Amino acid sequence: MIQQPVKERIILGIDPGTAVMGYGLIKETGTKLELISLGVVKIPGGTEDHMLKLQRIFEKTIALIDNYHPDTLAIEAPFYGKNIQVMLKLGRAQGTAIAAALSRNIPVNEYSPRKIKQAITGNGNATKEQVAAMLQRLLNFQETPEFLDATDGLAVAVCHSFQKITTGRGSKITYSGWESFVKENTKRVASPLKIKKPSGSS
After folding, report:
1. Residues that bind Mg(2+) 1, according to the entry (predicted)?
2. How crowded is residue 143: how many other Cβ atoms within 10 Å of its Cβ?
3. Positions at the binding site for Mg(2+)
4. Which pLDDT tens digit goes with each residue over 105-129?
5. Is 152 one of the annotated active-site residues of the chain?
6. CATH (domain of 140)
7. What is the pTM of this model?
8. Is residue 149 annotated as part of the catalytic site, yes or no?
């Protein structure tokens, strides 16, 4: 009997933010997980223009994709809080990272913070420190990152690996590219403006 080759895939996990963006990359070989890299992208505090911050997020996400060639992106969904301005900025940061992945035709999966914590620790209300400690045990690394945003990004990647099939509450639909996103979200995508030509113009 011919053995089927074990499938491998690289998963990029991102914890979006406008001050610090955490990321983690893992290689999945069958049921085995291996840490490739984790870290943060610091957005300079002096960057007052929010659009410039989004540009940096886009460029850094593209750089990670081009450097590590992930098969899929797993990203944390913005949490729902009372500060609408913070939610708006986090939503933009997340959307920018998603757009970067879709521009490279990388499938995207989105998970709620509670879903991620539940997958890693078994407790949807776990602290960042508890998530980081469990990841160190799962992936057998000792280094404690300067920012817990790094392990938050790594947690999203591991959460996605644990799903195998993206179903259940807290996980969202997968998009294989921009065309797929548009097809499934026609009401969320603005239609091109139809401008009438002035009478008599050619």
Report:
1. 15, 149
2. 9
3. 15, 76, 149
4. 999 999 999 999 999 999 999 999 9
5. no
6. 3.30.420.10
7. 0.78
8. yes
